[in-house]
Design brief:
Blueprint lengths: L3 H8 L9 H14 L6 H8 L23 H13 L5 E3 L7 E6 L5 E5 L18 H8 L2
Antiparallel strand pairs: 1-2, 2-3
Helix pairs in contact: 2-3
Amino acid sequence: MIPENIKTKIEKQPGEVHRDASSKARAQRALSKLGVEQESSFAKIYLEYDISVIQSKQTIELLDICFPDEDEILSATRFGREIYDVPEGYLCLTSGEGEGFFLYEIETGRIFDLDVDDMDVLSKDDRQARWNDFYELFEWYLP
């Protein structure tokens, strides 16, 4: 369940932030294609809300999984793997335009904030995530 404080912040945003039925169905297909569990904090946010319209207090923009018909996360992840050797098991939540990525670890739900030159950190057992789950990231992201 999405924490109330995050719901409140999102729902105070201007415009329609909830996904409609069609968008929710596309989001479910995208999550399945990405290998993300429907019960994860990541999935719960992406199934309920249209990330592309959510305003942030940060300069980083999180990508959407069906904006409007394209999975931006899948595209960015392919790019990150091809160009910067982002390992399997991680999804790029940002575009990499700033020479770095927010990477979602599918298995654990943790999020890493890494420069493109630091991808080798992900192969270490003692790697430290910036956020322990998607709710922590969203708490930081929202105004």
